[in-house]
Amino acid sequence: MQNIAEAFSLAFALVLSGDADLFEIVALSLQVSLTATLLSCLIGLPLGALVAIARFPGRGAVLVVMNALMGLPPVVVGLLVYLHLSRSGPLGFLGLLYTPTAMIIAQTILIAPIVAALSRQVLEDLHGEYAEQFRSFCLTRRQIVRALLWDGRYSLLTVGLAGFGRAVAEVGAVMIVGGNIDHLTRVMTTAIALETSRGELALALALGIVLLVIALGVNAGVQALRMSAVRQAYV
Amino acid sequence: MSEARPLPASLATARAVAVPILPLRLRGVGLRLGGAVILDGVDLDLGAGGCTMVMGPNGAGKSQLLKLLHGLTAPSAGTIDWNGHAPQAVRARQALVFQKPVLLRRSVAANVDFVLRARGLDRSRVSALLDHVGLAHKAAQPARHLSGGEAQRLALARALATDPEILFLDEPTASLDPASVQAIERIVARAREGGTRVIFVTHDIGQARRLADDVVFLHRGRVAEHGPARDFFRQPRTEAARRFLDGQLVV
Ligand SMILES: Nc1ncnc2c1ncn2[C@@H]1O[C@H](COP(=O)(O)OP(=O)(O)OP(=O)(O)O)[C@@H](O)[C@H]1O
Ligand SMILES: [Mg+2]
């Protein structure tokens, strides 16, 4: 184990030097994971809201599946996406394998279930409180979904954050479908894995520190937003 | 609370003429919740116009009765008939102010605007409605910061927003100061004069005397008494109602 202090100073030096490679890696990480988070919210939030308010036969089974999908192993998702996107796969003609798009697809599949399952829980609780009032207002299902998504917006921010955290931290899926190609598909986690395997522990640790700082920053931002919402009793 | 200002004429315009939903007829209505008998064998006839006060001890079934009439729950026995319509079918023509109002996590004005928008009504009425219940100065505040009485008034504004033919009020003045009670009573009286059928749950005997055209007295899930207000207050026919008015009847 190398000196942690050395890793920290290296991390600072790397960041302060404005190392172009480092920024490229960080930027790609954010681009891929934020896009995947956005897509997951577009899919997962309405889905979560619909399941939250709907009563249908087999709903219990749907909930079990939704919750189980939250634990999808990234390497399995990566492998499935790989099989579809590889030259011989059904979507091979798209030529997406080893591109950031493939990484976005894999991460979206990975975290959309997380967004759907967590938002379902949040919105079902909220709906429990609103349901009778909404029925008195004679709202359509569409109006109910919209109202729940809006009134739950600050709680849902935390849900989106959970998805983003999972995406930006995972290595298995992006490694398999991205290939960790320098200047093309290398993100923070795959870079860390690579540097570690090369024995460049300080560099790996430095990247890890940058990753942590980003995660902290995003969390702090969301937390601040939520606090201001709590002050207005909007949570 | 500020003096309640009347709604501008444009708000009180004649509602679209549809098939009337009064008189209301209940026959043998029963309600069971989780095995418990909440209402049992309720027969009730309410005519067009006026203000019916629903009274009775805690747990008598007053709130549950309103929910049945509004089509929020289905009776487990008997029939509820709004001049030939099922309760669910006429819910949009009614409004209910719940005993515990549920306010949206938005501003006071946005709470009223939400209803107007959802129902395709004129959204410029928000400020007039807030003015009407004396909440204009709170328009931009988060609704969940309102005091109990202010929350009741916001719920009333939301209910009036849809210009309902039937207005159910479940103890809307229970947590109000005397001046606010007066203001709410004026608003309700004005709605009644405007042709809104008011069905009002209260524990306040003085209030019932002031507002009632007729009184429904519920006791242990049954209509113990229903009659013109004068008769009810002067000479209640049942022992239960007599003791209730004397302040002795607890359950
Ligand atoms: N979901 C439920 N399951 C079982 N019992 C219920 C349920 N909801 C209400 N009750 C019971 O039904 C009875 C009537 O309730 P309701 O709320 O109509 O009383 P109320 O006349 O409005 O009383 P209050 O004056 O206290 O408002 C109560 O005894 C209550 O405990
Ligand atoms: Mg009640």
Structural write-up:
The complex is a heterodimer of chains A (235) and B (251). With 235 residues, chain A is mainly alpha-helical. Chain A has ten helices and no strands. In chain A, helix 5 (100-137) packs antiparallel against helix 7. The mean pLDDT of chain A is 93. Chain B is α/β, with parallel strands linked by helices. Chain B has one domain (23-245): 3-Layer(aba) Sandwich (Rossmann fold). Chain B contains eight helices and nine strands. Chain B has helices spanning 62-69, 108-118, 126-132, 148-161, 178-193, 205-211, 229-234, 239-245; strands spanning 24-33, 36-46, 51-55, 77-82, 94-97, 166-170, 197-201, 214-219, 222-228. In chain B, helix 5 (178-193) links the parallel strand 6 and strand 7. In chain B, helix 2 (108-118) packs parallel to helix 4. Residues 9-14 of chain B have low confidence and may be disordered. At the A-B interface, helix 5 and helix 6 of A face helix 2 of B. The structure holds adenosine-5'-triphosphate (ATP) and magnesium ion. Adenosine-5'-triphosphate binds at residues 33-34, 36, 38, 56, 58-64, 99 of chain B.
> Which structural class best describes the helix and strand composition of chain A?
mainly alpha
Counting H and I runs of at least 4 residues, what is the number of helices of chain A? 10
Largest sheet, spatial ordering of strands of chain B: 5-6-7-3-8-9
What is the CATH topology of chain A? MetI-like fold
**Main beta sheet strand tally, sense and closure of chain B:** 6 strands, mixed
Give the oligomeric state of the chains in this entry, treating copies of one chain as homo and distinct chains as hetero. heterodimer
- What is the CATH class of chain B? Alpha Beta
Bound small-molecule species: adenosine-5'-triphosphate, magnesium ion
pLDDT below 50 for ≥5 consecutive residues: which ranges of chain B? 9-14
